[in-house]
Amino acid sequence: MLVGIKAVIVDLDGTMVDTLGDFEEALNRTLADLDLPPVTRALIERTVGKGSEHLIRSVLAHQLALPEVTGLSNVCQARSVDTLYEPAWQRYQHHYLRINGEFSAVYPGVVEGLARLKAMQLPMACLTNKPLAFAQGLLKAKFLDGYFGWVFGGDSFERKKPDPMPILGTCAAMGVVPAQALMVGDSQNDALASRAAGCPVALVTYGYNHGQPVDQAPHDLLVDSLLELAERLTS
Ligand SMILES: O=C(O)COP(=O)(O)O
Ligand SMILES: [Mg+2]
């Protein structure tokens, strides 16, 4: 039962926007620049959610270990995640910012749900592990920016979800205590950060949770859409 909710904090990737296509496009353009083979969407889906550095490092480690890459000349074998990370991050930012939103789609019920929450005069913040510049561009491209009084990214605080710091910082910015803020997310990162911050959490059933069933993560409410969430808050 959710009572005394005065503010809502909403995750971005996997909760509001299905961004796997954007990740796939930006990563594969980056890998092509580095003469590495393309990555599969399934690997991205299992890996996304802990921010860009984690995603890039995990993808580089996976691609460098492929037999067709380890079988290359000594020069190529000298390449490591550490030596490739910085150029990969530079190319990734370049590509991501150019395609941001082009290969992604807003999930059904998001606009209707946000509109209802806004009509209930609940202040809303977007809190994502995505870099802030990517998040702001995506919200704008998808016409979702007008719903949020605050937007925080994975580089807005010293630590990312599942650490509670970003939730605590967002609550402070919104002027509410964690018990009054409802976090809405799609993964264990949102769930664990919320629990550690002392903030109730609703999880959507359709996002990315590192290949694990999301209902196994701690939650106070499980919903199939943001519209259902808004309906549950009014009833
Ligand atoms: O890891 C990411 O970039 C996506 O993160 P999010 O699910 O917190 O929006
Ligand atoms: Mg997410």
Automatic annotation (TrEMBL):
GO molecular function: phosphoglycolate phosphatase activity
Leading EC class: hydrolase
Entry cofactors: Mg(2+)
Active-site residues (renumbered): D11 (nucleophile)
InterPro entries: HAD-like_hydrolase_sf (IPR050155), HAD-like_sf (IPR036412), HAD-SF_hydro_IA (IPR006439), HAD_sf (IPR023214), PGP-like_dom2 (IPR023198), PGPase_prok (IPR037512)
EC number(s) from the headed UniProt entry: 3.1.3.18
Binding-site positions, Mg(2+): D11, D13, D186
Signal peptide annotation: none
Catalytic reactions on record: 2-phosphoglycolate + H2O = glycolate + phosphate
Source superkingdom: Bacteria
Keywords: Carbohydrate metabolism, Hydrolase, Magnesium, Metal-binding
Pathway(s) where this gene product acts: Organic acid metabolism; glycolate biosynthesis; glycolate from 2-phosphoglycolate: step 1/1
HAMAP family, per database record: GPH_hydrolase_bact
Similarity remark: Belongs to the HAD-like hydrolase superfamily. CbbY/CbbZ/Gph/YieH family.
NCBIfam families: HAD-SF-IA-v1, PGP_bact
Summary of the function given for this chain in its UniProt record: Specifically catalyzes the dephosphorylation of 2-phosphoglycolate. Is involved in the dissimilation of the intracellular 2-phosphoglycolate formed during the DNA repair of 3'-phosphoglycolate ends, a major class of DNA lesions induced by oxidative stress.
UniProt name for this protein: Phosphoglycolate phosphatase
Gene transcribed to yield this protein: gph
